[in-house]
Amino acid sequence: MDNKKLAYLFLVITTSSWGSLYVVSKFVLNTMPPITVLFFRYVIAAIVLFIILKRRKKDKIAKEDYKYIFCIGFIGYFVSIAAQMIGTKLANASTASIINAMNPVFIIMFAVPILKEKVTINKVIAVAASIVGAYIIVGGGKGGALLGILFSVISVIMWSLMSVLVRRVAQKYDAVTITTYAIIIAMIFSLPASIVELSTTKHIAFTAINIVCLFYMGIICTAIPHLLWNKSLSMIEAGKCSLFYPLQPVVAAFLGFVFLGEIINRRFIIGSVLIISGILFSIFSDNKNLKRNNNKEVKKVS
């Protein structure tokens, strides 16, 4: 399997894992505060990733790249995810989901000046189809507090910037190294925020189901997908990776139907078709362009 196909597989697994996070969160966030949940997610993920890192050859990070690893951990894994949780709490899930689906736009915006990636008509069509599809699935995002929308926008901007930074350093370092150190940084910053949160929260339940959910969120929704996302960014363009992001509401809505008894309606079907069509359009058009370029090279040689 070539790099692009493998990256596409990684991205499907990643977005599916992140999509399942919304369903699992329904169980644990009822009895535990959000930043505390985030802290335990990172503790579990950091342990798993550190064990993997210890078992393989480690990349030594150059001093001039410390700032990038710090920014990935602080901006991407701490500020962005914390802002996303706060935004979802202050606004509503639908509004936050729509804003979250804007990640491809911001990733491409950052990738153009920082990574010198090109904006093609195919990317524009794919992004537009995906965003419209996500908008249709969540039903337009009725309501939502202004402050919640602001936090959601901050989350999207910070995550997009982080993804571009990962693409930049992923050419030099292994994805396991980047992800492990970045998550440890995010875990450190989450700790004081969690302590403040716990001091103002009266009832916290560490039930069996909460513990199971935390391990699921730490391993399946954090360690594995963050690792695969960073690996994908080392293999293909950041703009191309971003096109898979709107798969999250599709997976979340489907799992909500299976495990929470939520209804799948016409909006879900139409939106899902648009999102998947946008991704497939981008993949197949990219393959056609590659074949066309290869044919041109063969003609030049002959």
From TrEMBL:
Record's keyword annotation contains Transmembrane helix: yes
Membrane topology summary: Multi-pass membrane protein
Primary subcellular site in the record, as a coarse category: membrane
Presence of the UniProt keyword Membrane in the record: yes
Swiss-Prot/TrEMBL keywords: Cell membrane, Membrane, Transmembrane, Transmembrane helix
Annotated signal peptide: none
GO cellular component, one term: plasma membrane
InterPro entries membership: AA-Vitamin_Transporters, EamA_dom, EmrE-like
Highest rank taxon of the organism: Bacteria
UniProt record similarity statement: Belongs to the EamA transporter family.
Record's protein name: S-adenosylmethionine/S-adenosylhomocysteine transporter
Organism: Clostridium felsineum
